[in-house]
Write a structure and sequence with these properties.
alpha/beta, five-stranded parallel β-sheet, FAD/NAD(P)-binding domain, 332 residues, eight-stranded mixed β-sheet, 27% strand, 13 strands, 10 helices
Length: 332
């Protein structure tokens, strides 16, 4: 294959793919329709899950050649809420919090700087012409079936992390509050069937967690919204043969809505396919499809159980001596 590779989309999956290819001697161009990398985020805290596999996700990123120059916070303790019940879950590095956005310490900016320093050419506000072959598509989700609505705000409250279940908060999904170093993110996660209730979900979430911060602090915060897309596709190539990575290919956890680990892994598999000639579809099928299918199964189980789903999930976590191991089993 030609040593010049063109990637459509400059989010974390596109940048990661470019970094891996550049480290292996390829000239990489990224076409990004936005004018700034990370612009759709607000420096809000988001999680990279670390429970679905034995390998620590940060070790995995380093093995791809990605520098860990961004701010990350290991979460070893999480308060799980259901109704008036609270269980503190503990486990080493169950998840890593990262900030998404345009600030210097955000994941997006640090990946951008690494890519630029390696010589990746990033063309903002530009689309390739019809004569330019596109090898990788990393444009993110075109539509959503997982949604989030929240507020980023400053607080004087101490560091703490919370996740809450309950249909009054977000039907079948959850809400969360993450506070670290005076920066807080509060949000609710829900599906497309409940878009019309999103404002109620957010207000209920704010009320529910109000004992953990000064309610006046939230009023000066900045609202944000986002969406993700899950799909199990027969092929992860478009009609022109370009590989679809990250959420452009529907690679998302359908149970909890986590997608960053899939973004990095699929970026690595796409780069590997370019470098070795291996089938990208087969790499995804052999390494990620089982987790995708299990997340779909678990989401369907939640929907079938209806009002019993949330109390059952809380009961299982509450009774488990090793909640992280339980999560790991769920994905296998």
């Amino acid at each position: 294959m030609d040593r010049e590779i063109n990637i459509l989309g400059g989010g974390i999956s596109g940048l990661a793919c470019a970094i891996i290819l550049c480290k292996n001697g390829y000239d990489v161009n990224i076409y990004e329709k936005r004018e700034v990398t990370g612009k759709r985020f607000n420096s809000d805290w988001q999680g990279i899950e670390n429970w679905s596999e034995e390998t620590d996700v940060l070790d995995e990123l380093k093995s791809f050649g990605i520098d860990l120059s961004f701010d990350y916070v290991p979460v070893c303790e999480l308060d799980l809420h259901y109704s008036d019940k609270i269980r503190t879950l503990t486990g080493d590095n169950a998840c890593y919090l990262v900030k998404r956005g345009t600030a210097d310490d955000c994941l997006d900016t640090c990946l951008l700087n690494q890519a630029k320093n390696m010589g990746v050419k990033i063309l903002y506000g530009t689309m390739p012409d019809e004569n330019t072959p596109v090898h990788v598509i990393a444009t993110g989700p075109e539509k959503g079936n997982i949604f989030a609505k929240g507020i980023k705000f400053r607080t004087n409250s101490p560091d703490n992390y919370h996740m809450a279940f309950g249909d009054d908060i977000a039907k079948g999904f959850y809400s969360y509050l993450l506070i670290k170093n005076g920066e807080a993110t509060i949000a609710t996660v829900f599906d497309n069937k409940n878009l019309h209730d999103s404002e109620n979900f957010l207000n209920n979430t704010i009320d529910y967690f109000s004992n953990y911060y000064n309610p006046e602090e939230v009023k000066s915060g900045r609202k944000f919204g986002g969406f993700g897309y899950f799909d199990i596709r027969k092929t992860l190539h478009d009609d022109n043969g370009a590989m679809l990575i990250g959420e452009a290919g529907g690679l998302q956890d359908y149970l909890w809505g986590f997608g960053m680990r899939y973004a990095f892994q699929s970026a690595n598999f796409a780069a590997r396919s370019i470098m070795t000639g291996e089938s990208y579809d087969i790499l995804i099928r052999e390494n990620l499809h089982q987790k995708l299918k299990h997340s779909q199964r678990n989401r369907k189980l939640f929907e079938i159980l209806g009002p019993l789903a949330c109390p059952l999930a809380y009961h299982l976590f509450n009774r488990s001596k090793d909640p992280l191991k339980l999560l790991n089993v769920v994905y296998r």
